[in-house]
Amino acid sequence: MKKFLAAVLAAVLCMSVLAGCGSKAEDALPTEGVSEENAGASEGAAPAENATEDNGDSKEAAPAEDAGATEAAAVSEALADGVLNVGTNAEFPPFEYVNDNGEPDGFDIALIKAIGEKMGVEVQVDNMEFASLVSSIGTKIDVSIAGMTVTEERLNTVDFSNSYYEAVQFVIVPEGSSIASAEDLKGKTIGVQLGTTGDFIADEIEDASVSQYNKAVDAVNDLVNGRLDCVIIDKNPALVFQSKFDGKVTAIDGAQFDFEVENYAIAIPKGDAALAEQINNALQELIDDGTFDALVAEYIEGGNE
Ligand code: GLN
């Protein structure tokens, strides 16, 4: 699974990190497997009745016949305190944002809380800079959920859960811009969120001058104020910003620029197989019992932000 994701994502890395790769179009790998898997994921019907609630009390010895949910025999040290410390960057609507009460909220936050509930642990969310997330895993935080794309480079430092969402980079342009193809991006002033896959892609664009922001919304503000030619950011935040800055900007599908499909997953400490298994089991239960789809409807399709 991981290998497969890595293979699919190699294309993204290839164009953003490695020297000497071919053009983006040539690097494109088939993504059907991933799509099918995601489709399967959101179609899941069979409710997992014998779910995990009991995981919390009897961490050491999960009853053997309580299938599925309690398959994970070992318990991660990260959960020894009964708390799953989660890092996010709440600047990425609809996946994460700060709500009216000043709390991190959004699809990812609801998902990780539901996962924590299945695992029988308390979930604490820490809002930090996106670029610090990966290096903080295993020290400051246990895991990260942040609309984070599985990339080969990140896989050198962390492991990832099974993927839970498929995305692609979009290009946000001012209304009336002539930018419409990969060719048009050459030599442009491009805004990105620091340390993201949009940043890596922009970095590879010929003669582009790249402005990195900690908050995506600041990039979009600079776009609206005429300081940038475009912003490269993931699909769903791009669509949120398009409606927030209605009439001022347009979000263009990255497929038009030959950008590759990306997969979001939860980043976990490298080698913590017990935690990976518990998270994957909980995620699968949420897919099977319909919770996952309900969260998609509430936060992503419902435009709740
Ligand atoms: N999916 C992008 C990445 O992983 C952006 C994530 C984000 O900005 N939260 O780099």
What's the main sheet like? 6 strands, mixed
Q: Shape from CA axes?
A: globular
Strands, count? 14
Question: What string gives the helices and strands in order?
Answer: HHHEEEEHEHEHEEHEHEHEHEEEHH
Query: Assembly type of the shown chains?
Result: single chain
**How much is the average pLDDT?**
83
Number of helices: 12
> In angstroms, what is the radius of gyration?
19 Å
Helical residue percent? 25-40%
What small-molecule ligands were found?
glutamine
Based on secondary structure, the structural category is alpha/beta
Strand percentage: 15-25%
Termini separation comes to: 32 Å
- Contiguous low-pLDDT stretches (5 residues minimum) are 1-72
Describe this structure in words.
- By secondary structure, the chain is α/β, with parallel strands linked by helices.
- It has helices at 2-16, 24-27, 32-43, 107-119, 130-136, 152-155, 182-185, 197-203, 216-224, 235-244, 273-288, 291-301, and strands at residues 83-88, 91-92, 96-98, 104-105, 122-127, 143-144, 158-160, 165-174, 189-193, 209-213, 230-234, 249-253, 261-264, 267-269.
- Strands 8, 9, 10, 11, 12 and 13 form a six-stranded mixed beta sheet that branches.
- A hairpin with a 3-residue loop joins strand 2 and strand 3.
- The radius of gyration is 19 Å and the shape is globular.
- It binds glutamine.
- Glutamine binds next to loops.
